[in-house]
Amino acid sequence: MNYLNLHIPTTLRSTEFIGCEPIDQATWIKLAAFCAEHENGGVIRDCSKWGDRRWLACCVCTKDEVHRDCPLWTWNSDDLRVKLYPKEREDTAKAMRIAGRRGNQKRWGTTSESLPESPPESQPDIPSPIATRIHKDKGKGKGKGKGKGKDKGKGMVRGGEGEPAPGDVEQTPIPPPAERPSWDEWWAYCQLIGYAAEWHAKRKFLAAEADCWRRAGNWQRYAELCRTWWEQDNRPMEPPGPSRSESNGKPSGAEIVAHNDELRRIDAGIASLRSQYEGHQAWTPEDKAKMRKLKERREIVTKILGVIV
């Protein structure tokens, strides 16, 4: 989980938490955050022999801080049990993630029906923030019952009673690592569907890799979409060449293809920014600057192409 959902009256305002020293309170928050990232139910297993370097790398605290006598955690043999940890919220997040994957399968026609019930409890020797967050789905869902799930992207939902129905949750398609093709698989499929420009396919493949295939979704459908773009650009077999024709100073055919592609990306960026502010909320200074740069660049590109805006 990327978020630690705490019920303040029973955790941060509880007598156990208030009665502890500030160093113990800070250590408890760090331990709870580690448990939330690894979804281990509030138990850090086989950690009694960890040294300072291991504790600092995993939980950003020292061995002495963890081995202090404190009512906020207990030792059970080699396992550390974190008290007041919101395990019920973790269980809810797991259930919603499974339901979201089922809805994703129904939406995108994934053939695999095997769904893991929960992440493996074994913890890596050296936790990596990328490894622990790569499977955290971002979406919105509804609980099955009276409650309405309104938390977005937090992995936790204020839902009603019972487990959510499989088709109730839809999530932004984020393919797991197994669904990300290698270049050989990508190029073989492109050739199969008649997408014959290797330079164009390579560029789209690298762009999707840089984005971790989040916006591309189903990679076969993305390949077919790239083929459509390539066909709309008159099926160029070579990458853009010289920027201008020497005879009349107008854009060359290859440059027109490149600028059309850039114009398409700029329009997509503008539409994406506008969609984030459909509720008429105030724009952040960063997004305002980004929108201004996109519009300026669009004006330049359209002038090059001879388009009247």
Biggest sheet, spatial arrangement of strands: 1-3-2
Structural class by helix and strand composition: mainly alpha
* Tally of contiguous helical segments: 11
Strand content: under 5%
Rg on CA atoms, Å:
25 Å
Roughly how many Å apart are the termini? 46 Å
Mean of residue pLDDT?
75
> Helical residue percent?
40-55%
The helix/strand order is: HHEHHEEHHEEHHHHH
Looking at the structure, what is the overall shape? elongated
How many β strands by DSSP?
5
What's the number of structural domains?
2
> What does the largest sheet look like?
3 strands, antiparallel
Low-confidence stretches: 112-164, 169-178, 243-247
In short:
The protein has 309 residues and is mostly helical. The chain contains eleven helices and five strands.
Features:
two-stranded antiparallel sheet; three-stranded antiparallel β-sheet; mainly alpha; 309 residues
Topology:
Layout: H1 15-18, H2 22-38, E1 43-44, H3 52-59, H4 63-66, E2 73-76, E3 79-82, H5 87-108, H6 129-133, E4 139-140, E5 170-171, H7 183-192, H8 198-210, H9 219-232, H10 253-275, H11 285-305
Antiparallel strand pairs: 1-3, 2-3, 4-5
Helix pairs in contact: 7-8, 10-11
